[in-house]
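Example record

One chain of 363 residues, shown exactly as stored in the release files.
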Amino acid sequence: MKILITGNMGYVGPGVISHLRKTFPDATLVGYDMAYFASSLTNAVVLPEHNLDVQLFGDVRCMSPEILEGVTAVVHLAAISNDPMGNKYEKITLDVNYRSSIVIAKMAKAAGVSSFIFASSCSVYGAAGDQAKIESSALNPLTAYAKSKVFTELDLEHLADDQFTITCLRFATACGMSDRLRLDLVLNDFVAAAVVSGQISILSDGSPWRPLIHVKDMARAIEWGIKRETANGGEFLSVNAGSDEWNYQVKDLAEAVVAVIPGTTVHLNTEALPDKRSYRVSFEQFRRLAPDHQPLYTLKQTVGELYEGLTSMKFSNREFRDSLLMRLKLLTSLQEREFINEDLEWQHKRKQSFNIQSSLETV
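Predicted structure tokens for this chain:
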């Protein structure tokens, strides 16, 4: 078996490649990444890519078809990964998250790849009201990021057949410790704030709902997607990936942090305008289709893990929201220092040279 993981050098990737190495010890694991965040290591004992057989560096917007030769499964994580980045780079978000995803899927199918796993998002539901959304619920994407996921799912559906199984995992909001930690995620932000200041300031009244999932449980879902047979969900499947127990209001997440980190106080902005990005999600279908790959982490465990990880890093930056642990801040910094251009391409390369790949063999 040969598995290609795109976007492996981000927040989710390290946990995915570690899990896939344990689950498929004899598989050839290949990473493919633009490497924006390669240096964003957080308390990593070793380089996460040591679990790979090969690391390729390149842009998903112009991936060479040769990359897919002999590949059994594609795990497609690569994306402009959150709403602030999507808002600033709307056109690039659609190019990277949507258009390139479809091109890669078509190349994968032509190359004989049997399984394509797409990292989608529960944000496709947008403003969802009080009723938990199921897979057949109307989609109401509010941001460029969410729209890119919807567009990709719609086009991928036409590519699936009995030789090319496609699994779109509509992940809940990611959280938890990673070898490349992000702090621009709600729970991670709350724990970081508690560690450095003992205070959590919520920009809303705390009432919006968020479904969450630990990054390591995302890896378990991806493993299931790789193994999934067409008899279990069909040739094409979009499924909410997470747990019903992980539907929380934002204020409940803050209180969970207080329970683990005593002395933390919470400030709500009761005068804030309603946050439209509020949704609860039903994960019943995922529970039925993937009973052996259900999330294992609890909220308390995740908060404790983040607290321990940040403490062991001696994390003390009170201005962390302006730090390079925020993905948009890092991209902006790379642009300001002229490492990447306005199209988020590395300055030392040009569009016509991106088909030239380099590899880092693991030892």
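Notes: The longest strand covers residues 115-121.
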